[in-house]
Automatic annotation (TrEMBL):
Protein name from the UniProt record: FdtA/QdtA family cupin domain-containing protein
Chain ranges passing through the membrane: none
Coiled-coil region: none
Pfam families reported in the protein's UniProt record: FdtA (PF05523)
Residue stretches making up the Sugar 3,4-ketoisomerase QdtA cupin domain: 4-131
């Protein structure tokens, strides 16, 4: 079972000309990307996420601003990741309960392994503990 971990994408360029970072198929993202989405203008008082997935794997990247990602694994291990550089992302496996809190200027880019399917979401924490605690 994979655990949440940071992924550092290449940071090519220099401060005087700017940078580019690249994620390619069969590269640093450990799955085939089926969906990409982004969130922005989230008030700092809002905590998003609060769910896990049955099957979807994700990589979350703070394209701007700061995002605090907290993950909990079925064994109770909790990790906190602070994303504030657009060349660093966090891998979130399907069995991780996760939350995100944003600075107001944050723009989050998400690479997902599946298309949107509401049945893939576990939105109740108690259900997450039941589903993944029994595995």
């Amino acid at each position: 079972m994979q655990k949440p971990h940071l992924i550092e994408f290449p940071k090519l360029g220099a401060s005087d000309i700017g940078y580019i970072s690249v994620g390619e198929a069969n590269g640093l993202i450990p799955f085939t990307v089926e969906r990409t989405f982004w969130t922005y203008f989230t008030p700092e008082s809002i905590v998003r996420g609060r769910h896990a997935h049955h099957a979807t794997e994700q990589v979350l990247v703070a394209m701007a601003g700061r995002i605090i990602v907290t993950t909990e694994m079925p064994d109770g291990e909790v990790q906190t990741f602070v994303l504030e550089s657009p060349h660093v992302g966090v891998y979130v496996p399907p069995n991780a309960w996760h939350t995100m809190q944003y600075s107001h200027t944050a723009v989050q880019l998400v690479f997902a392994s599946t298309r949107y399917n509401e049945q893939d979401y576990i939105r109740q924490y108690e259900t997450f503990r039941q589903v993944w605690g029994a595995k």
